[in-house]
Amino acid sequence: MNEILLKNIKKPNSTDIDTYLKDGGYKSLEKALKECTPKDVIDIVQKSGLRGRGGAGFPAGKKWEFAAADKNTPRYLLCNADEGEPGTYKDRPIIEKDPHQLIEGIIISGYAIGAAACYIYIRGEYAYGADVLRKAIAQAYKKGFLGKKILGKKFDFDLYVHKGAGAYVCGEETALIESIEGKRGQSRIKPPFPVNVGVWNKPTVINNVETLANVSHIIKNGPDWFKSMGPEKCPGPKIYSISGHVNKPGNYELIMGTPLKDLIYKYGGGIKNGKKLKAIIPGGASTPVLKPEHIDVNMDYESVGAVGSMLGSGAVMVMDETVCMVGVARRLLKFFAHESCGKCSPCREGTHWLVQILDRIVNNEGKIEDIDLMLDICDNMRGKTFCPLGDGAINPVLSTIKHFRDEYLIHIEEKRCPVNYPHSEHCL
Amino acid sequence: MEETNIEKKGYAFSKEGMQRLKEMMKDYPSSDALLLPALYIAQEEFGHLDTEALRYVADVLKLPRSKVFGVATYYTMYKTKPTGKHLVQICTNLSCSLLGADHIVKYLENRLGIKVGETTPDNRFTLITVECLGSCGTAPMMQVNDTYYENLTEKEIDRILEGLK
Ligand SMILES: Cc1cc2nc3c(=O)[nH]c(=O)nc-3n(C[C@H](O)[C@H](O)[C@H](O)COP(=O)(O)O)c2cc1C
Ligand code: SF4
Ligand code: FES
Fold first, then answer.
1. pLDDT tops 80 at residue A187
2. Does the distance separating the beta carbons of B99 and A317 come in below 8 Å?
3. Rounded distance, CA A12 to CA A10, Å?
4. Residue in A83, A126, A285 nearest the CB of B94
5. Sheet holding B142-144: strands in order across?
């Protein structure tokens, strides 16, 4: 497939507005403002079938429709550039190399929902990306694509960059809102949903960078073009971030629903050093681990769900035979325990208890009851937390127990690591 | 915004820092939202955010000190303690660990003669581990202050440290 979202990133001066304009940039904005009402734009995006690329896969047009229907004003658009899900680095090339593609998508989306302004919430570590965005935004203001009476229309719209400061949970939409408001980024309980009560209690749409980057292309080429790519229920291009034990890690923009096998072997170049594939995390740290027997799965929301995992952000983490899966579970649970915002006890306590138990199993001091104990803790977290961080945190534990129970048993009963390669001695 | 009490507290934003803050006020419907950006400016100008610095930010923004303290201690990128000139942050999340982050940590500990969490006696380097920085395809990686260094090897680390005087 020809790249759509990543097609500009290798061009010289790709961040400059003149480069972008030369290639037909901001033409979609012109088209949207001149030929469409805001409702038309929502209809087009609904018809295209575009679903959120941030992890949950919610239909973008639906979300816009809900917010636009709320009469409370001003409305806000928030662009989620927090990109914190371990394994995920797909938004970074858009931000750093093609900021105008994102900005154009944001302005069109803002027009559709009748937003007064958009804040790009970018993770603090992406300092370089934040600078690129600020410069690009300044250029867009100069050309009259942002500010008052955009392209001579009765449409005023402002765009700002807001930097996070190191908290994974701020990628969760309600924690992100709290963080923009200048608070500790702790998730809010839903409902009310942000589309009605969002930032500063105003109707708010939150969309991921990749989601918004698709918008100008949909306006330019039409919803049928978009729908013609990939599965009917979640069409379009998708950027998959591949990492871990593959020969050619990287971002690959492919059609939604590309088989996992192709991602690993055709694009990722196969397993490093001729080793055997052992496990795959298909959509970032909070999605359940899969086994080699699952690699024929198509990488779209429905298909990955059908084999017991989730597409998530499309971040494929590949593990070879040298990896101890108990160690993997422990490594990821340490992450979730560190990132739990602490607002609700199942997640705040549960993640730490799981780390303690996994620590003792990895150190060959576990007891056989520990497995059931962990399953019980997970059961008391699932669906009982304020935000999905708690639900995601149990996935590494549950899925490794399900698929690699023998490795837990060897650590517990034989008091040794099941893997005999030197670098897995520490079980990550 | 208030510019009084500055001398007494010891800390004060530079003219330029104060100007940046004032300009940002126009960006938000509520000045509470300035807290995160203000903490960044304070950290840039004062080096780290000790109690005095946080009190100063609270006074400038007319926010309760408890709120400012709560926010500054919540986010990992705000430093409430001093660090060396170069803050070396090694990612040890899964993708980096799979490709030897552990080894990178040990190598840097040896090279710098300090453990994770410590600062070299000459105050040049502080070494810490961090969670995923969004560079998993170019693992292992580290961030030194604001700059990313990817596809790390021992040789590459030597070269990078040479350049950081
Ligand atoms: C713990 C947690 C972290 C998240 N991190 C991100 C993130 O870094 N980037 C992102 O776009 N969405 C993230 N999300 C999903 C957002 O809550 C939200 O669903 C998404 O931004 C909506 O945009 P979309 O519909 O365009 O995908 C996260 C969710 C959770 C529960
Ligand atoms: S699930 Fe975890 S991160 Fe989410 S609100 Fe509860 S404690 Fe916070
Ligand atoms: S795991 Fe190290 S940058 Fe993502």
1. yes
2. no
3. 7
4. A285
5. B125-130, B86-91, B142-144, B147-149
Provide the residue type at A182 as one letter. G
The beta-carbon neighbor of B33 closest among A124, A180, A245 is: A180
Structure tokens at A290: 């899969």
- Where does chain B show beta strands of DSSP type E? 86-91, 125-130, 142-144, 147-149
Going from the Cα of A351 to the center of ligand 2, the distance in angstroms, rounded, reads: 10
Helix (H, G, I), strand (E, B) or coil at A418: coil
- Geometric angle at alpha carbon A320, from A315 and A324, rounded to 5°: 100
Q: Closest Cα partner for B30 from A208, A162, A329, A215?
A: A162
Q: Which residue has the tokens 């999340």?
A: B93
- Look-up of token digits 């292992």: B140
| Ligand 2 centroid distance, CA of A202 (Å) | 23
Q: What is the pLDDT of residue A427?
A: 77
A81 pairs with which residues across the strands? A122
Q: Is B36 on the interface with A (CB under 8 A)?
A: yes
Contacts of residue A91, defined as CB under 8 A and 6 or more positions apart, other chains included, come to A81, A83, A208, A209, A210, B134
**Interface pTM (ipTM) of the complex?**
0.96
Sorting pLDDT into bands at 50, 70 and 90, what band is A426? low
- β-strand pairing of A315-320 with B86-91: unpaired
pLDDT tens, residue by residue, A390-408:
999 999 999 999 999 999 9
The answer to whether the CB atoms of A242 and B137 lie below 8 A apart is yes
Please give the Cα distance from A167 to A169 (Å, whole number). 6
Name which of B74, B22, B80, B85 is nearest B49 in CA terms.
B80
Strand locations in A245-383 (E): 250-255, 277-281, 315-320
Q: How much is the average pLDDT of A366-380?
A: 98
Confirm whether pTM is higher than 0.95: yes
**Residue in A with minimal Cα distance to B24:** A160
| Contact criterion met (CB below 8 Å) for A111 and A33 | yes
The pLDDT of A62-79, averaged and rounded, is: 98
Average pLDDT taken over every residue of chain A: 97
Paired tokens of B5 = 């009490």
